[in-house]
Amino acid sequence: MKYKFENNNVIITDVVDFSLKDTLDCGQCFRWDANEEGIYHGVAFGKSLDIFQNENTITLFNTTKDDFYNIWYNYFDLDTDYHKIKEEFSADDTLKKAVQYAPGIRVLHQGGWETLLSFIISQNNNVKRIKGIIKTMCERYGRPLGNGDFDFPTAKVLATLSVDEIFELKCGFRAKYISDCAKKVDSGEINIDEILALDTQSAKEKLITIKGVGEKVADCTLLYGFGKMDCFPKDVWIKRAMANLFPEGLPECAKNNAGIAQQYIFHYARTSNIFD
DNA sequence: AGCCAGGGTCTGC
DNA sequence: GCAGACCATGGC
């Protein structure tokens, strides 16, 4: 892939192993939406972005070279060689099918705090409503970016809210979990930077001390937020897929990048018709 | 209308 | 350790 910088746009040419649609619509993130023309709009790390893919070209609109290298390059995991990883995965015939179903999926790096809170909201919930709750929360409690967009709210702000105020976001029984999470992060009892430095198992044990965070939410947080590629979140779809497609367990060829394999399997199970 | 959603907690064996 | 009730809400 090659990168060009022109007129506040970043143009990626010779794009390989990257489908914007599959990556942003495969259920790992909740703040991106496409308009009628297929241009995706979203916010991450306090910056909003418009981004569009036309075959082997991806254009990031109205951004800077600095933001590209400081934020988006890592956000879209552009430093990782997915071609090599997919070749390894293809040693298993079933996993190969999942990869070929959506070969352009990449695992995003969304940041620990936002991912943690987002996946607390995700529990026993559907993607549409998860997005709606997060949108309302950002609009009500996030810093305005000046263009109608809002940053993801800080732990400090959410920690000042009562459970009743959080409940008004229509997040239901998760309000008390959001409150506990914000207070633990704000007080420093949970330190996002320290968790990043921990090994996966210790990090998971730390996250699970938050009310409403179990193994699955912790795994999602560590995978999509902290880039821990050895995590393998097991939701209802993955459990279904594993029982049917991989009764012997995850193939050996996927062990080094279990989290990436999980994303291919999840998307394949959820959006193909194999379980109809 | 009724089941389900990228689950977790709490209780009771 | 494992099963089951329960949790709020809205999508389909």
Summarize the structure.
The chain is α+β, with helices and mostly antiparallel strands.
Keywords:
276 residues; alpha+beta; 47% helix; DNA-binding; six-stranded antiparallel beta sheet; globular; single chain; 14 helices
What this model shows, in words?
This protein has 14 helices and six strands. By secondary structure, the chain is an alpha+beta fold. Strands 1-2-6-5-4-3 form a six-stranded antiparallel sheet. Helix 5 (112-121) runs antiparallel to helix 9, helix 11 (200-207) packs across helix 12 (215-225) and helix 13 (236-245) crosses helix 14. It is globular and about 50 Å long. The chain starts with a strand and ends in a 5-residue tail after the last helix. The model has no long low-confidence stretch (mean pLDDT 97). The protein binds a DNA duplex (13 and 12 nucleotides) through helix 6, helix 12 and helix 13.
Q: Over all CA atoms, what is the radius of gyration?
A: 19 Å
Q: Kindly, what is the distance between the CA atoms of the first and last residues, rounded to a whole number of angstroms?
A: 37 Å
Low-confidence stretches: none
- H/E series: EEHEEEEHHHHHHHHHHHHH
Strand content: 5-15%
Biggest sheet, spatial arrangement of strands: 1-2-6-5-4-3
Oligomeric state of the chains present here: single chain
The averaged pLDDT comes out at 97
Q: What's the number of helices? A: 14
Largest sheet: 6 strands, antiparallel
DSSP, total strands: 6
The dominant shape is globular
Structure class? alpha+beta
Helical amount among residues, as a percent range? 40-55%
